[in-house]
Specification:
Chain lengths: 290, 290
């Protein structure tokens, strides 16, 4: 018996969770039919194909989070300004009719305060609430890393660092990347050098080009460039946004990189939460408020 | 009568100058046969085609600066560590035989001090000496902007900001760029907003993503994104490396952008030197020391 169907519907992937009455995940499915691969008219069909057999066909609640609610998704669920909690997200959810009953698209969250740098998130809010952190700093590393301040179970403020996207751009399209052997294994020494130098420079701006200079001067090998660059960017992110203590939410490999960088920064007590588990729990929490 | 032939041989372009005995440029030529477009065996032929008729065929000195001396150029002229002056550059020049006599390839310059961020330049050293600034901070904006400290006519230290390359990467390949109307005219208001916000944040890291957030939140139009992004990056460069007073060397449009950003930073007395004129005078100065 399915009590709730939850879908984390991102840009490139889709992860679906089937919950029983206690909120336990009794089945999961994933596919590569992310929002960026679909036209507006495809979403209903993909939903039915993916989770149709979990539904009773009409009354099983369905919660959809992530880029499914973006301008180029199924339908746009506008950003809610901070502060935001699960009840507020659920009540502002966008109802869409599907062949297996109504579904609710979770809105994104925005920072629009006059004295803040504007930012938006979509999908991370669901992970955040699933992680169950009521107060403190939470970091979700990724393509667009989020640094989120939680207070009393609400998202009250956040900033975004484009660390993952910058890394991919620089590795794949820049003059730095031309010198890199991108097939090389991760090198912790080169990574740590990048972190330490950026933390000391307090900026990535004078630091990035050293990935090129050090190769031309023979100080770094092509096999070190990608790890060094990763260290510069993660060090720059922690240097700009870091304070402690913090909790990390994400995939194990990325979380481990950030833990290493946080340790160099001087923060050793970093709690971690698995990203997949968090999003499933978050979908359940929002579903409970429907 | 040609006293010296000087060539600024960059990655994508080549600019050649014919000097009379007083050091005046009596003819200039340019082409798109930059170092990146040529194989090692092509350089001699391109040199003869471009300036062969300026030479007496054997004794007219030829000075070549820029990427012609890089690892992928004609022949590698290794970087000279700071401090460096024109006499030192000339004496360390790499002699290559050509069908119109010997030519000297000007070495690049490096920063390798243990407490400094490593950096390299190749071509900018010639512009710097041509600008005739003996002491102070000199900024050469570009793909890889150089911030150079001159003391007693020597390059003693410098740092590099990848501002131009980051701008092109972000505009052409990133999720920010997807929201930009890149055909729009420069918008000084959006540019200034980017500069001010980055100077206030003291980092580009939490700031870059706002180019996306502001469009999604309706605060910026697609026609503003490129100018805003340019402001963020130039503001970040000045925020990280700025101090005054400074001299700017470069193409008029880029110099004008940096003057606008420096004014927002609070520095209004920025001297400027045209980049083309500077490189010609620098080639002459190095030639005088041959």
């Amino acid at each position: 018996m399915t009590r709730l169907i939850g879908v984390d519907w991102g840009t490139t992937n889709l992860r679906a969770y089937r919950f029983d009455g206690s909120g336990a995940v009794i089945e999961r499915r994933s596919s590569t039919r992310g929002a960026a691969t679909l036209g507006r008219e495809d979403f209903a069909e993909v939903l039915v194909e993916t989770v149709g057999d979990w539904s009773d066909g009409a009354t099983t609640p369905i919660v959809l989070a992530g880029m499914v609610g973006s301008r180029n998704g199924w339908r746009e669920a506008p950003y809610l300004p901070c502060p935001v909690d699960p009840a507020r997200l659920a009540s502002a959810g966008l109802r869409v009719e599907t062949p297996i009953g109504a579904a609710v698209i979770v809105p994104g969250v925005s920072v629009t305060a006059a004295d803040a740098i504007p930012s938006v998130m979509r999908g991370e809010e669901t992970q955040l609430f699933g992680a169950g952190i009521r107060d403190g700093l939470v970091v979700l590393p990724g393509t667009h890393s989020k640094w989120v301040t939680m207070q009393g179970g609400k998202i009250v403020d956040f900033a975004t660092a484009m660390t993952g996207e910058l890394y991919a751009l620089l590795r794949d399209h820049s003059l730095l990347g031309q010198l890199a052997d991108t097939t090389a294994a991760f090198d912790e020494t080169a990574f740590g050098l990048g972190v330490r130098r950026t933390l000391a420079a307090k900026s990535i701006v004078p630091q990035l080009f050293s990935a090129r200079a050090d190769v031309l001067l023979g100080n770094l090998g092509p096999q070190d460039v990608a790890s060094y660059l990763s260290g510069i960017l993660i060090g720059g992110e922690i240097g700009a946004l870091g304070r402690g203590p913090a909790t990390l939410i994400g995939a194990p490999r990325l979380v481990s990189l950030y833990r290493t960088a946080f340790a160099i920064y001087g923060l050793h007590d970093i709690a971690t939460v698995d990203g997949d588990d968090a999003v499933a729990r978050g979908l359940w929490q929002i579903g409970e408020h429907l």
